[in-house]
Amino acid sequence: MVGFGSDSAETTLVLVHGFTLSSRAWYFQVEHLRQEEGLRILVPDLRGHGGSTTGQELSVDATARDLCSIIRECAPRGRLVLAGHSLGVMTILAALRSMPSEDRERIAGIALVNGAINTFASAGITSVLKSLPVKAMRWTGKQVPDRYRRLKRATDALVAPIIAMFVYHGALEQGESNDYDIVGYHTQEIIDTSMGTILGFLDDLVNHDETAAAPYLHGFPGVVMVGVDDNVTPASQTRAIAQVWGAAERAECPNAGHMLPVECPEKVNRELRRLVKAASSR
Q: 151-181: per-residue pLDDT in tens?
């Protein structure tokens, strides 16, 4: 886990990344906010991702328990602002349900980016996770893991054009992100994610539903964000979160897809700064 800012800061911003990514996914947000006075930033790697260990259980509930432990150990006092992207959204929702009430009461803002409150497989291209071929792949991968590790190595070269086609859109060619090889970065993140992590989380990505977390959002200020062209967790899923939340602002980014923190960093930065400023004034 990476931390920025003083341990005595009054507000801690916790940034939770998505599936097959790492803490590096929040690079633009950290660079934008790291000098904010009175703010500490925590950027953990979820289990099985980045520099973290895998652990025996790969699930949203497990990442939520990890997040609760990180908050308790690394930010035991002061206000909290939580921001999640994709799998990180599910992780935050599950953490809201399970964290001690004294920690929940310290939350002063929440940002949910490119996420879903119902199952990931209920809409978008992730609906293929429910198909028979993918079910067979998951089963075979558990029985013969070496075969699927070899398959992943053989297909890694195909990753870049696939994610460029389905994940990114015109907004990537605008603003600060245009100065970086974002598709190359994303490709390397996927290559660096083990087949064990990918297969381990797939079952949960199909079945995990966080609609039970909806009541825990009530009363918190926040924002839900999505790219209008998001094919992974479509805008309809983000609108569903906004509907059950009630108090959240909604931001839909045109010509953008599933990777808003790196596709439209300026817009994500602006929303996070707004939440941090509001939290600091409470």
A: 566 666 666 677 777 788 888 888 888 889 9
Q: 85 has which bridge partners?
A: 113
Task: Name the more confident of 195 and 26.
Answer: 26
For residue 159, the Cα-to-chain-centroid distance in whole angstroms is 20
Quote the radius of gyration of the chain (alpha carbons, Å): 18
Q: Which of 165, 159, 145 is nearest to 192 (CA)?
A: 159
In the beta sheet, which residues pair with residue 80?
Answer: 12, 107
Alpha carbon 258 to chain centroid, angstroms: 10
CA 93 – CA 64 distance, rounded (Å): 8
Task: List Cβ neighbours of 230 (8 Å cut-off, separation of 6 or more).
Answer: 114, 124, 238, 256, 257, 258
pTM of the model: 0.89
- Whose CA is closest to 261, among 253, 249, 269, 250? 269
Q: What residues contact 40, with CB distance under 8 A and at least 6 apart?
A: 3, 4, 5, 6, 7, 9, 11, 12, 13, 75
